[in-house]
Amino acid sequence: MKTSPTKKQSVSVKSGDIFVLGSHKLLCGDCTNADLVEPFIEKTKIDLILTDPPYGVSYVEGKQGFSESKNAHRTIVNDHAQGEEEYRIFTRAWLEAVKQHLSPKNGYYIFNADKMVFALREGIIDAGYRFSQLLIWAKTSAVVGRMDYLPQHELIAYGWFGKHAFRKAKDKSVLIHPRPQNSTLHPTMKPVGLLRRLILNSSAIGQVVYDPFGGSGSTLLACEQTKRRCLMVETDEHYCQVIIDRFEKLTGEKAKKLPMKNHA
After folding, report:
1. Which of 166, 171, 185, 203 maximizes the CB count within 10 A of its CB?
2. CATH number of this structure's domain 18-262
3. Which residue blocks in the chain are alpha helix, DSSP H?
4. Alpha-carbon gap, residue 187 to 61, rounded angstroms
5. What is the pTM of this model?
């Protein structure tokens, strides 16, 4: 049954809810709020941050094709045109909220676009992290947009806090991978296969991957497929439901909502 683009899908998720999805956990909340993040993570140590934050460029406004999907009424929280200083502060805030929970050896991959990559870099450094390299995700087809040169790539900031462990002998800085053919669940969906590659490069089986901007849940699915544990945060109740639905469809397992008394 198709859903009208103007009709909101019902969700059973509210801000502050925590769900257990197999070996993974999902928090519906703001990842810059340490008072929410700390009791969610508890004493767990995070080995890898893998995330796709808002790019600060009003991405959805220029996303053609998404307007015809059943989720067309949705927006991305913080997906508004930001100045570089605002974006630097935003980046520093969400990175600082998780810093104390990182393993002694860790890493991060942060997707971004050309416009805000310098502000992203400054926010990373301000938070005390090492900015090591910019990787390029080269897509097999361009994205329709308003620029003179149609974008066929996205940038991925790579680095760590303190020390890191890279588990592949060598990889290349240009990662060639097709973009999802169907992005109707979320306007900036990342391919699970690409996320798997990054996870395998910078973590081991059983280790913990943190995604503070869960979106449609692709990082969680990649963790499920690679036998990692995912701690995911998503501020939008609708997209939390999308994450739950995708997990349940993939695994056949049911998400379990934690009672409020277990949230702290």
Report:
1. 203
2. 3.40.50.150
3. 34-41, 84-96, 117-126, 192-202, 218-226, 237-251
4. 10
5. 0.87
